[in-house]
């Protein structure tokens, strides 16, 4: 039975993260090793920068000087990664790489499939709730929290106006 690919953390020289990731990807492609090194990534986060009253989204490295590699650990894969220019070593005791646990992988969100939700709503918009508890209920957006990707909506329940806060992916314009 073939061993399953696990996530490993590689330490690199500062500023070499993207170059290391690209070099590993090239070697994998050239040697056709996609089955034992299926993924290489530099974890990024999108941050909103406000400068001179202008907002701009920018990508920032989540873990500077580190690259994540999903691979089956063999002598060949260890050698390829370890001898890539810019790599200082694997994270682990001595020269023994330690894979990330499932819990650590989940916390990093590297295997999670996230759906990014844009802010298409503003106060006063008429919306329909698509989430399961209030599915099909119409309401009016009172406020939008772009940080938490939620909207406060006023709906009519039992003849009274009631305020509910819902994730933006559970509402759509009416």
Write up what this structure looks like:
This protein has 174 residues and is an alpha+beta fold. It folds into 2 domains: 6-108, Alpha-Beta Plaits (2-Layer Sandwich); 126-173, SH3 type barrels (Roll), CATH 2.30.30.30. Helices cover 17% and strands 39% of the residues. The chain has helices at residues 17-31, 75-82, 102-108; strands spanning 6-12, 39-41, 44-51, 54-61, 66-71, 87-90, 126-129, 138-145, 150-157, 160-167, 171-173. The strands form 3 sheets. Strands 10-9-8-7-11 form a 5-stranded antiparallel sheet, with no helix packed on it. The longest helix has 15 residues, at 17-31. It is elongated.
As residue ranges, the low-confidence spans are 112-117
| Fourth CATH level, the homologous superfamily of the largest domain | NusG, N-terminal domain
Molecular shape = elongated
Mean pLDDT: 84
* Spatial strand sequence of the major β-sheet: 10-9-8-7-11
β-strand number: 11
- Structural classification: alpha+beta
Find the CATH topology of the largest domain.
Alpha-Beta Plaits
Number of helices in the DSSP assignment: 3
Cα(first) to Cα(last) distance is 53 Å
Return the CATH architecture of the largest domain: 2-Layer Sandwich
Q: What's the assembly state of these chains?
A: single chain
Largest sheet: 5 strands, antiparallel
Question: How many structural domains can be distinguished in the coordinates?
Answer: 2
What is the succession of H and E elements? EHEEEEHEHEEEEE
Q: What is the CATH C level class of the largest domain, in words?
A: Alpha Beta
């Amino acid at each position: 039975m073939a061993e399953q690919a696990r996530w490993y953390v590689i330490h690199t020289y500062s500023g070499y993260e993207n170059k290391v990731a690209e070099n590993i990807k090239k070697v994998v492609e050239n040697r056709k090793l996609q089955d034992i090194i299926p993924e290489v990534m530099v974890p990024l986060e999108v941050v909103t920068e406000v400068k001179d009253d202008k907002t701009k989204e920018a990508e920032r490295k989540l873990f500077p000087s580190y690259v994540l590699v999903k691979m089956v650990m063999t002598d060949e894969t260890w050698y390829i990664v370890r001898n890539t220019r810019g790599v200082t070593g694997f994270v682990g005791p001595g020269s023994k790489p330690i894979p990330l646990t499932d819990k650590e992988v989940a916390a990093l969100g590297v295997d999670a499939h996230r759906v990014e939700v844009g802010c298409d709503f503003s106060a006063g918009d008429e919306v329909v709730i698509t989430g399961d508890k209030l599915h099909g209920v119409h309401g009016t957006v009172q406020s939008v929290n772009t940080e938490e990707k939620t909207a406060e909506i006023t709906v009519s329940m039992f003849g009274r106006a009631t305020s509910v806060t819902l994730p933006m992916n559970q509402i759509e314009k009416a």
